[in-house]
Amino acid sequence: MKSHYDILIIGGGMAGASLACALLPASQSLGLKIAVVEAHPLPEGGQLRYQPSYDSRATALAYGSRSIYELMGIWDTLQTHLSPIRQIHVSDKGHFGVTRLSAEQEQVSALGYVVENHWLGRVLLDRLQQDDAANIDFLCPAEVTAVEPAAEQMDVGLKIDGESRQLSAELVVMADGGRSKLRERMGIGYQQQTYDQHAVVANISPDRFHGDVAYERFTDTGPMALLPLETLQGEYRCGLVWTVPDAEVEEVMALDDQAFLQRVQERFGYRAGRFIRAGERHAYPLKLVLAQEQVRRGLVVLGNAAHALHPIAGQGYNLALRGVVALADQLIEARKEGRLLGDLEMLQAFHARQSQDQQRTIGMSDRTMRLFSNSNPLLTLGRDLGLQLLDLSPTAKTVFARSAMGLDMPAPRLK
Ligand SMILES: Cc1cc2nc3c(=O)[nH]c(=O)nc-3n(C[C@H](O)[C@H](O)[C@H](O)COP(=O)(O)OP(=O)(O)OC[C@H]3O[C@@H](n4cnc5c(N)ncnc54)[C@H](O)[C@@H]3O)c2cc1C
Fold it and tell me: Closest ligand 1 atom to the C-alpha of 176?
């Protein structure tokens, strides 16, 4: 551990570890000294134990996120355990609206990919511990307890091996997640809006192969997504994300596996087969959170610490990843130009660009959520007509699909 770093990243979760991977080539070519500080211990023997970022959830990566991981050089490893999405089937329970998007029609090999969080975590953290990552110190388990601005740098208080240490950095990146205590401690305000819902997440096994289809099903109590997962030891698997009103979540979590599967089947129908096994369940409260201040001199807030979205459109992490690459690009350019990495003007320019992407993505997820959680007959008719029209219009579908795939954004560089 050094006493001063060019960049200190708080949080080795999906966003923080991705930023370190994105900066890895520059850490070699430009000599950037980077620290990633992660509070949760790494498991022994290479197996990731329960950790908030790398839990039993699966994440739908948009096609655009694949290009990002290709640039980082980890795609080849990542793809050994992920499932392509070749079709997306969107339907409205009890109504006529249905639409289907297909990779073939959009002339791409897949519309997106589903990766289990613990595998993504393993690949990212392994990358940071390879021989060529010598300029990146992974401090774990270690907790950042304080961040204070000082002249031309940030002072960082750290707890490691039971001892308090004081470090400094030119730039601190807060990627410490949606429950960031530091955000509060540093007086960074945020807008928050609750959806009065929880996401109940579980892996479930249907009695037949999912055929690389992702399902989004809107029901009168909230949407359900069923994501295709890798088949393990002959067992077909899908990742369920079921949006349940707060008032019902306790009851749903208390159901035994058989009753749970029956309830899911009744809500979802049989288009993906008969559900025969359910894995461990987790429930996450759903909120829309947006940090009002995402940059200060010497400080950037990133990932879930900056924004948390309703998972309905599977966009939260994809948005975070676009922010990760944009920040890495900006920092590499700044270092090449000899600017300070904590330069406020440069960070504000970065934030202005990200803010447009955030507003657009949050707007899309939030509108979809509200439209499909409403049982008003006129809105129901409108959305069903919308789904049917989308199904009939190849151009509209392509626009929708390109946006969902993250292909309507400028290509990342990382040079
Ligand atoms: C049910 C559900 C389904 C989702 N599905 C999708 C999807 O399909 N597609 C998609 O794009 N997105 C999805 N998301 C969003 C996605 O999960 C988040 O965007 C992602 O987890 C954010 O990662 P993060 O690294 O910002 O935060 P986190 O995952 O919370 O990681 C923060 C890390 O910081 C560490 N930490 C915290 N405080 C400190 C400290 N003081 N010192 C050191 N370390 C610290 C923590 O230990 C943790 O490892 C979903 C979210 C939910 C809830």
Answer: 34
174 CA to middle of ligand 1, Å? 12
Ligand 1 atom closest to the CA of 302, numbered from 1: 26
How many structural domains is the chain composed of? 1
pTM: 0.90
Range(s) of the domain holding residue 60: 4-191+287-404
Residue identifier of the C-alpha nearest atom 49 of ligand 1: 13
Task: Write out pLDDT tens, residues 208-223.
Answer: 999 999 998 888 777 8
> Is residue 171 domain-resident?
yes
Domain holding 23: CATH number? Answer: 3.50.50.60
The answer as to whether 219 is a domain residue is no
Peptide bond into 245 cis (omega under 30): no
Distance between CA atoms of residues 226 and 82, nearest Å: 15
- Closest by CA to 404, choosing from 83, 14, 113, is 113
How long is the chain?
A: 415
Q: 304 alpha carbon to ligand 1 midpoint, in Å?
A: 6
Ligand 1, atom 31, lies closest to the CA of 13
> Quick check: is 186 in a domain?
yes
Q: Is residue 256 part of a domain?
A: no
What are 4's strand-pairing partners?
168
Cα 99 to ligand 1 centroid, rounded to whole Å: 30
* pLDDT per position as a tens digit, 349-358: 999 999 999 9
